[in-house]
Amino acid sequence: MITGATSGIGLEFAHQLGARGHHLVLVAPEADRLEQVCAELAGTYGVEAEAVLADLSVRADVASVAERARSVDILVNNAGFGLQKWFLDNERAVEEALLDVLCRAMLVVSHAAGRSMRDRGSGTIINVASVAGWVAGGTYSAAKSWVIAFSEGLATELASAGVTVTVLCPGFVRTEFHQRAQISLDNLPDALWLDARRVVRECLTDAGEGRVISVPSRIYKGLAWIARVAPRRFVRSGGKLTQHRPPLR
Ligand SMILES: NC(=O)c1ccc[n+]([C@@H]2O[C@H](COP(=O)([O-])OP(=O)(O)OC[C@H]3O[C@@H](n4cnc5c(N)ncnc54)[C@H](OP(=O)(O)O)[C@@H]3O)[C@@H](O)[C@H]2O)c1
Predict the structure, then answer these.
(1) Residue 212 falls within a domain, yes or no?
(2) At 26, which helix (H) or strand (E)?
(3) Is residue 249 part of a domain?
């Protein structure tokens, strides 16, 4: 099961897991796009691709996804979106929806899937965080910090049950994410952009080896290390850079 499977990193997980012969359960909020992606993946890889229509900011939808997650072998909690505005300039409802999608949905779905996996003695959970989880840049960054801590705790809880938990912490990845959030990154050096195929490939290798934290690429491994050991006042200035960019024209 992959949440947010119709675009970017989630769609790439669907491709790479489909290519390995896994049947797919894809979760997303837009019916037409979801049906189209399911049909394409089923046709390309000869696997079953089941569509679960859900807006993960809606509690009833999250409950249905959690119910379906009880019988999956691999869960990828990936769905998410970004914020362009400073916390106090943004609508509170949007900030709350971000927590619902990035954190609450992950908690509820992982609880259902994790219990079943523990009972069966096998399973893989991959939670998508971000290197932003190690800086301090608004609700997005705070939510990703929660994802990292939550995933590390769950990994420890499930370690003796034969279930692995890996938290993926990418840097900037070329997807629809920044365009949707109206975040302009025109001046970001090419070296800091990652390709979703590489991010997912490295993450699946790390998950296969039972690694708890997956940071794709050497450059972001280095930056993540610096963010974890640097004095917090420097980390806070880094967080400032992740916020308040001019909107895309
Ligand atoms: N791109 C980056 O630079 C980057 C870096 C670090 C971490 N991440 C994380 O990676 C994950 C995937 O992001 P991406 O870059 O692949 O972005 P993306 O291309 O915008 O894809 C986001 C996916 O999440 C789905 N989604 C959004 N809101 C949802 C909701 N309320 N309920 C259910 N599904 C929802 C979208 O569905 P629709 O297409 O139907 O809207 C889409 O399938 C996110 O958790 C993001 O925080 C991204």
Answers:
(1) yes
(2) strand 24-28
(3) no
Give the chain's domain count.
1
**CATH code of the domain in which 193 resides:** 3.40.50.720
d(CA 26, CA 38): 7
Amino acid (1-letter code) at residue 228: R
CA torsion angle 211 216 219 223 (round to 10)? -60
105 CB near ligand 1 (under 6 Å): no
Which of 91, 178, 184, 192 minimizes the C-alpha distance to 139?
Answer: 91
Round to whole Å and give the CA distance between 91 and 94: 5
Residue 225: partners with Cβ closer than 8 Å, 6 or more residues away: none
pLDDT in tens, 173-218: 999 999 999 888 888 999 999 999 999 999 999 999 999 999 999 9
Mean pLDDT (the chain) is 95
DSSP sequence for 110-132: HHHHHHHHHHHT-EEEEEE--GG
Q: How many CA atoms are closer than 13 Å to the CA of 124, on its beta-carbon side?
A: 18
Annotation marks residue 45 as catalytic: no
Whether 18 is in the pocket of ligand 1, judged by its Cβ within 6 Å, is no
Find the domain containing 6 and state its range.
2-241
On whether residue 51 sits in a domain, the answer given is: yes
Is the shortest distance between the CB of 80 and ligand 1 below 6 Å?
yes
Confirm whether 248 is domain-assigned: no
